[in-house]
Design a protein that fits this description.
single chain; 334 residues; alpha/beta; Rossmann fold; 4-stranded antiparallel sheet; 12 strands; 30% helix; globular
């Protein structure tokens, strides 16, 4: 077997916040990511999906060491990068890049687009004609080389995100962390950016970690999907397997909320509405973290934490009472 481009084992990230009660102050722990493990093969897209606050963006930033993990191991092409110093990590940063969620905030409004795209080349002291490289990158993402002289405010949201992709590709990386790259864009623009990312992946052989909360987008682009809830992975498996046969009740509920374009199928679908609010990551529930909103929770769920276990093939689920019978949600072929 080949070595994965990225391997994450038992990743934990905790934040500490100060709280004040009267005249006393105390420190509380926010359990943002709790024991997440997954691998990304060469040329593969791993989709990480979950509600806001589930910890998926924190996972992406820990992978790049933009946030320091509390514990766990992160290996890039077989090399453990968790304990590397910033100086030792610097050469590897050329091979791991990120595309941020907000195309309006991720570009410096004072710099031309060409300067922003060339900045990684300058920082890493890459020799050669930077102007020529910028022109080729702009063409790669579907923009004109003449656009290099323009400023970010002269572009639409979709065009700005294409500039962000071009900047991330400047150093010829092999891994891209895509942090909700289309969530800030109009629906009509999203498909163009997603198709662009797929075309670039095929052309350059890139590996992606695609972070999103839009399940239809994740299904379209991902080979493997990991579903996160309150800092933990609750289901992992091949994209089609997760979508056509979800085994965790949380995944089932998420998929039931995805609109179905076929009105006949839509009328026959069962919508699952979860009750209650997402618990605080400062004080997560004991046992299964989803039990406070789960329609099938029993006493065992409060005292015993479910671990990821096989649900058939490479499909894994963390649930004491997973779906035993395939759940048909409709639209498998769409």
């Amino acid at each position: 077997m080949t070595t994965p481009v990225l391997s994450v084992e038992n990743l934990v990230k905790e934040f500490y916040v100060k709280t004040t009660a009267g005249l006393r102050s105390a420190r509380q722990t926010v359990y943002a990511v709790s024991g997440v493990s997954f691998a990304v093969e060469e040329g593969q897209t791993f989709g990480l999906v979950g509600e806001s606050g589930s910890g998926k963006t924190t996972v992406g930033r820990c992978v790049l060491r933009l946030l320091e993990p509390t514990s766990g191991n992160i290996a890039f092409k077989g090399q453990n990068i968790t304990s590397l110093t910033q100086v030792e990590l610097r050469p590897l940063r050329r091979q791991m890049q990120i595309v941020f969620q907000d195309p309006y905030a991720s570009l410096d409004p004072r710099l031309t687009v060409g300067t922003s795209i060339a900045e990684p080349l300058v920082v890493h002291k890459v020799p050669g004609d930077h102007a020529e490289k910028v022109a080729s990158l702009l063409e790669l993402v579907g923009l004109s080389p003449d656009h290099s002289r323009r400023f970010p405010h002269e572009f639409s949201g979709g065009q700005r995100q294409r500039v962000g992709v071009a900047r991330a590709l400047a150093l010829n990386p092999s891994l891209l962390i895509l942090d909700e790259p289309v969530s800030a864009l109009d629906v009509s623009i999203q498909a163009g950016v997603v198709n662009l990312l797929q075309d670039i992946q095929k052309e350059l052989g890139l590996s992606y970690v695609f972070i999103a909360h839009d399940l239809s987008v994740v299904r379209h682009i991902s080979d493997v999907i990991g579903v996160m809830y309150l800092g933990k992975l609750v289901e992992v498996g091949p994209a089609e397997s997760v979508y056509t046969n979800p085994r965790h009740p949380y995944t089932t509920a998420l998929l039931s909320a995805v609109p179905e374009p076929n009105p006949v199928i839509e009328r026959g679908r069962q919508r699952i509405v979860l009750t209650g609010e997402v618990p605080s990551p400062i004080d997560p529930p004991s046992g299964c973290r989803f039990r406070t909103r789960c329609p099938r929770a029993e006493e065992r769920c409060a005292v015993e934490e479910p671990l990821l276990s096989s649900a058939g093939g490479t499909h894994q689920v963390a649930c004491h009472f997973p779906n035993e019978v395939p759940v048909t949600l409709g639209g498998a072929g769409h």
